[in-house]
Amino acid sequence: MTTIVALCPYCRRGGVRAPERIIGSVATCPKCGSQFTIVPKEQAEDLTAGPQVETHSHAIAADITEPAKPLPEVAEPSESRDPAFTVALLAFTIFGLGVVATVLPFGRFIGLGLCSLGLILGAVALLGEGLAVKLGAAAVGLNLVAVTLLAVVPTWLGFTPTLDDDAAGRLKGPHSIAIQSNDISTTDRTDAGKALFANADVRIGVRAFVQPLELAGPKGEVKKPREYALNLHVGIMNSGVERRVPLSGWAQGIMTDDVKLTDPAGNVLKAKTLDAGWKPTGFEKMDGVFPGKSAEVILLFDAPASSKSKRIEYLNLDLPGSGVGLVEPIRFTIPGPF
To answer: pTM for the complete prediction?
Structure first.
């Protein structure tokens, strides 16, 4: 036998469960005590207020019906949100701002400060519950990675690689900073394979490659002459916090007579002369480097005259300090063989 559930049209909370055959009988709501007529489902919405008195003589609803289970109450949505959730979202926002700030002047230090604040806020969010804790943990992880990169291994983001800038700054005049250990030493020439040249807030590194020329033209054209050339990639970094390092002359890719590259015998390698409007691919001319930022210049020379039986073991590079706003010259030994 089919069983139906009739909902009270007055309180909409109570109801009765009964056989389908008693449709039309009167039932009493177990919740509010009102009497109502049991009708088919499709007619339930047409009921009007007021007790129904029409009955069928062959059935008494009270004897054959049973109360239906009350409908579950729907909890009202909470008006307030866990404050820890808001703090976690703020930690994420600050992380994003810190990453964006790294492209600005003094970006390394601005980003370090913002991400440190985000790390603290993320840790506070861990005191919340549920989703706030998960978001807080994620914010802590992201900000911690950013702080570590900016403070400990900034070279991954293009900043100065020195761990102790203050210690380097205490040594006046030209000196070298070992790439692997950050040890500081004074020497007449910096070994380009192992160290950076340093003076005040300027750091310079050199890499050398003997490879075919590849040049970019004034209208976006690219040409690849068959001849080989010695490419010197000179990286210039500003490790200070006070000034913008000016670039001129060789630091803008302009070859002048005071730029000298010599072999062990003292022979001078000739600089490559390029047609007007042509420059090495991958080089963008800059006129200054802001704190925490770097630039790279490509200097082209004739390939060293070497053979399988006679290889050139190293080259000496002399650059005027005026190219990066310094008085003292910049000297490198570039290890080969070439």
So the answer is: 0.53
The pLDDT confidence band at residue 337, using thresholds 50, 70 and 90, is: confident
**One-letter amino acid identity for 251?**
A
Question: For residues 15 and 38, what is the distance between their CA atoms, to the nearest angstrom?
Answer: 10
DSSP H helices in 12-82 = 61-64
pLDDT at site 205: 95
Cα dihedral: 90, 91, 96, 99 (round 10):
140
- In angstroms, the CA 83 to CA 117 distance is 17
Q: What pLDDT was estimated at residue 58?
A: 41
Task: Indicate the domain borders of the chain.
Answer: 3-67, 83-157, 165-335
Q: What CA–CA distances, in Å, run from 278 to 68, 92, 288?
A: 89, 45, 21
Per CATH, domain 165-335 is 1.10.1740: no
Tens of pLDDT, residues 200-211? 999 999 999 888
Residue type, 51: P
Q: Which two tokens stand for residue 145?
A: 């990675």
| CA atoms of 9 and 209, how far apart (whole Å) | 89
- pLDDT at position 320 is 96
